[in-house]
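Re: that backbone. Tokens:
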């Protein structure tokens, strides 16, 4: 049976603060419409998409993003940090209607700066797949603990292909201990591409990874004047096979 393909993208939008220092939520929407909508995405994950401090208030127009991309904004009240938030600690997921959601969860991650992950289990053309989006700590020891927490969550859930995407804040292409199979219980793999800073990308902070039997194909940074100006990160997009 031929593998299905999910087109995925992740972008840290830096709370709409652009590389020029200006805060302009409208530029985020326009950049998504210009540079990501034409990709025909099934999954779009945003990080730093709510305010940094309580009440983690809304930053961008999520309904406008949903309209322009044709994706569904999935965050009902149970999937938001609070009533003024659009996502969970800045993580927001948009999914294609072709992904039939069967289970959604929020995962609290330890650390002095509150972090979290959003997990969605879905059926895609009869294939089961789990999508986990997160934004990990700047501290390497904390990233290891946070990935251990995600791994413990995965162990409690039914086995299925898992796609992890987001800003992992890991500057080393080989990723170190945080993605060690013994630590998280599964081998999440994928190539690395430089996404930060957006004007002169040097570090592969953002990742799209999956475990077997899936593969990450055609991974690339999305480069355009609009996205480079709208945030300090570049978006990352890839095709992920779902056998």
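Recovered sequence:
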């Amino acid at each position: 049976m031929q593998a299905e393909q999910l087109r995925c993208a992740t972008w840290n939008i830096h709370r709409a603060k652009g590389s020029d220092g200006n805060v302009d939520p409208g530029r985020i929407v326009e950049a998504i419409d210009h540079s990501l909508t034409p990709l025909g995405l099934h999954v779009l994950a945003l990080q730093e998409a709510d305010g940094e401090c309580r009440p983690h208030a809304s930053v961008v127009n999520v309904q406008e993003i949903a309209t322009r991309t044709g994706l569904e904004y999935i965050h009902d009240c149970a999937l938001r940090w609070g009533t003024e938030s659009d996502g969970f600690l800045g993580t927001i997921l948009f999914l294609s209607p072709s992904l039939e959601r069967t289970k959604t969860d929020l995962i609290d991650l330890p650390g002095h700066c509150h972090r979290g992950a959003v997990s969605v289990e879905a059926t895609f053309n009869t294939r089961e797949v789990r999508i986990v989006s997160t934004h990990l700590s700047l501290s390497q020891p904390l990233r290891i603990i946070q990935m251990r927490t995600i791994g413990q969550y995965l162990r409690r859930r039914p086995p299925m292909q898992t796609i992890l995407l987001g800003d992992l804040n890991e500057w080393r292409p080989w990723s170190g201990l945080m993605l060690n199979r013994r630590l998280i219980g599964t081998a999440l793999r994928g190539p690395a591409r430089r996404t930060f800073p957006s004007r002169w990308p040097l570090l592969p902070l953002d990742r799209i990874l999956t475990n077997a039997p899936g593969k990450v194909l055609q991974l690339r940074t999305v480069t355009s004047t609009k996205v480079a100006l709208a945030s300090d990160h570049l978006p990352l997009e890839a095709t992920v096979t779902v056998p």
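The chain has a mean pLDDT of 96. The chain is about 20% helix and 30% strand.
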